[in-house]
Write a structure and sequence with these properties.
The structure is a homodimer of 452-residue chains. Chain A is an alpha/beta fold and 452 residues long. The first copy, chain A, has a domain of 258 residues: Rossmann fold (3-Layer(aba) Sandwich), CATH 3.40.50.1100. Chain A is built from 18 helices and 15 strands. In chain A, strands 1-4-5-15-10-11-14 form a 7-stranded mixed β-sheet, with helices on both faces. In chain A, strands 8-7-6-9 form a 4-stranded parallel β-sheet, sandwiched between helices. The longest helix of chain A is centred in the middle third of the chain and has 20 residues. At the A-B interface, helix 8, helix 15 and helix 17 of A face helix 8, helix 15 and helix 17 of B. Chains A, B: Pathway: Amino-acid biosynthesis; L-tryptophan biosynthesis; L-tryptophan from chorismate: step 5/5. Chains A, B: One of its GO terms (molecular function) is hydroxymethylglutaryl-CoA reductase (NADPH) activity. Chains A, B: Its cofactor is pyridoxal 5'-phosphate. Chains A, B: This is Tryptophan synthase beta chain.
């Protein structure tokens, strides 16, 4: 039975798909936090190259992928699409489960799909150094790899709790020539401020973003790069879903359900936006698109859909998104890449409009799912990815109940080779499931700045 | 420029190639250590299933791969063959460099290629538990994965120096349901004996083999499995070279040089035996086949070609091979999988006969090569694999000198995701290069038992 559905390198997409073109009305624009007026490209030009700013706002349906970027993609793309025969058999489900395996990339996850074009456009614009942040380290190692390709320097602010849990992500960044420091750090004003208030803070993505932006603003020929959340990052990740659609067509299939885990939302965007476009344009109106988030950072399921800052210190524009409040510090947990207070504005809009929906799970149940996946399909996934695995297993089990033979597609976004301490905690029974009282969530939401 | 040469799952080889069929004269047989007479199948039946014993001695040119085993292979095979465009450009070489990427397997290396059929044949023979050993942990995690597929129990004796350097390999074995204990252990007579002599020993593969064999002999329905050295292990690994030959034919190429790293010798055997067969049968008489070993365990380059034990305690047959003496304990170094006192009898014979040759490198220079590879091709290889990378780079640099456009093929046998502490030591400048005085080697060789 065919297990892997493969494409040739010539079939690496030549264009990214931009779901903004198919939204029934435009996205609410990012606002300047000082003036509360929509930002203009110049507001962003201190930290982003003009081509990425253009991609952030364009409503063109397709954006060309530079040949030089496609040439780098050949190192791992197109990635294989797997039919999960062994998992299906184990679950005794009539559903067909497919997963897109992004763990074959150099840094081991989908993050490289946007790191390479981001580094490329910065290089083209004469930028010589990138400052960025990372949660679990997948983005940090990806941007380290990408900047190395173009002979650029790179500094990564890594969320402290992950820095301590995953020391070898730092080693990987070093092999590729980047510098990696725990955040909050004493290098930046925003880092020092947080440390003063709480020297033992586990850190957060919001804090690390503030540090990286501050670094970029204050250094010559240095730009900032973000591995998630923004529209251009979603755009770059659509290679995942575009390939999936081709691969499923090769076996005469099309998904009834599309699933991804959600931190900032871009791996989910990557696999789902081409299908969301099919839904928005009426080609496949019934497709069910599910984002899976951690119950310990439940932005889409318990957050507010409103304008909020993307970082802790307030250096970034206000984005219209689901948020728990920009100063919300999620507990230290193993899916560090999902510890973000907000979400991609496009994903948020689509969830708000009912084009997509969201579910939340606790870490002990997602690790149950991850172990089942490892013991059937052989792949040990990242803690972030295990959320998508759990979502897919639950949908497949529903099919066992109903007898439906649905086609379920999920994004297997990265391997867990640097996350084995999380599996150790799981097998030792020491994983903690955080449940937020409503009052605590409300308090965080009340701190979101009010827009006039 | 095409980077990856891919095959369909239908092109997973249907038969293994057995180079024994093309040797000009038979291999010297394994001897019973007590009688010094050739062993008979019954001598091995206490620890191996009959089908593997048959494969150990057969001179059939091809051996069928069971369909059930090919079905498991679909999870990662055929593996991609890469053209190393970026490395070639960096080296300014006219050579063409290809590498076979075995790191895409569940456990991250070629070892799974033999773990699966070994577990399969044991399951078929009614065996319910496997005892085995592991050096760096690649074999241990592979046999853990394979035994899990067939619902068997598994105990792994892991060489202590690697157990401490690579704690997450143990976590991986646990995810797949196996038990992993540091060797020498107090579980076995052979382990206790070594610990009594030297409580601080780093352990060795020879000691760990003794423990696993002793465990298998002393437990019901338990067999032993070896991840290297033996003829049937070489046989199983030939899927690598067979696929390479097909993949190179797709781009109208054939190697002038074939390279692999050598510990027990089976990943090298896997990539090279199909080409060695072409050489032995006169189809390609000039192909250069190079095994690369660590200078700190220089079996092929400084050992003796003679009968010796495969393990420390003397539980195994005497094998005719290159050896440094069965009680030789190599220093603790990062390429734990290459810390073996002997070599595959077939590889040894082919090196002895001049069909293949061997070179040795120090660990600091192989890590230089590994870093170059990571910074060009993006892949962070295992310390073992870095020896093959170094060999390929050196051959490519010779081509730059001579202007020859040779086709160089090497086995990129595994990823280094669990070996980042070695890269940390490299970048900290703390790697130690061991150079053995001739006297010390001679002393170890003098302890090899004399055959009448």
């Amino acid at each position: 039975m065919q297990t892997k559905i493969l494409l040739d390198e010539e079939q690496i997409p030549k264009q990214w798909y931009n779901v903004q073109a198919d939204l029934p009305s435009p996205l609410d624009p990012p606002l300047n936090p000082r003036t509360q007026k929509p930002i203009v490209p110049e507001d962003l030009s201190a930290i982003f190259p003009m081509e990425l700013i253009r991609q952030e706002v364009t409503t063109d349906r397709y954006v060309d992928i530079p040949e030089e970027v496609r040439d780098v993609f050949r190192l791992w793309r197109p990635t294989p699409l797997y039919r999960a025969h062994r998992l299906e058999k184990f679950l005794k489900t009539p559903a067909k489960i497919y997963y897109k395996w992004e763990g074959v990339s150099p840094a081991g996850s989908h993050k490289v799909n946007t790191a390479v074009p981001q580094a490329y456009y910065n290089m083209k614009a004469g930028v010589e150094r990138i400052a960025s942040e990372t949660g679990a380290g997948q983005w940090g190692s990806s941007i380290a790899f990408a900047t190395m390709l173009y002979d650029m320097d790179c500094t990564i602010y890594m969320v402290r709790s992950s820095y301590e849990q995953k020391p070898y992500r730092k080693s990987m960044m070093r092999v590729w020539g980047a510098e990696c420091i725990p955040s909050p750090s004493t290098r930046t004003e925003s880092g020092r401020t947080v440390l003063k208030k709480d020297p033992d803070t586990p850190g957060s993505l919001g804090i690390a973003i503030s540090e990286a932006v501050e670094d970029a603003v204050n250094h010559e020929k240095t730009n900032y790069a973000l591995g998630s959340v923004l529209n251009h990052v979603c755009l770059h990740q659509t290679v995942i879903g575009l390939e999936c659609r081709e691969q499923l067509a090769m076996v005469d299939d099309y998904p009834d359900v599309v699933i991804g885990c959600v931190g900032g939302g871009t791996n989910f965007a990557g696999i789902s936006f081409p299908f969301a476009g099919d839904k928005l344009t009426g080609k496949h109106p019934d497709i069910d698109i599910i984002g899976v988030e951690p119950a310990s950072c439940p932005t889409l399921t318990r957050g507010l859909y409103t304008y909020d800052l993307a970082d802790e210190a307030g250096y970034t524009p206000l984005l219209k998104m689901f948020t728990l409040g920009h100063d919300f510090v999620p507990p230290s947990m193993h899916a560090g890449g999902l510890r973000y207070h907000g979400d991609s504005p496009i994903v948020s809009r689509l969830v708000h409009d009912g084009v997509m929906r969201a579910v939340a799970y606790h870490q002990s149940e997602v690790f149950d799912a991850a172990q089942t996946f490892a013991r059937t399909e052989g792949i040990i996934v990242a803690p972030e990815t295990s959320h998508a695995v759990k979502g897919a297993i639950d949908e497949a089990l529903k099919c066992r109940q109903t007898g439906e033979s649905k086609t379920i597609l999920f994004n297997c976004s990265g391997h867990g080779n640097f996350d084995m301490s999380a599996y150790d905690a799981y097998s030792a029974g020491t994983l903690v499931d955080y449940e937020y009282p409503d009052a605590l969530i409300k308090e965080a939401l009340d701190r979101i700045p009010k827009i006039a």
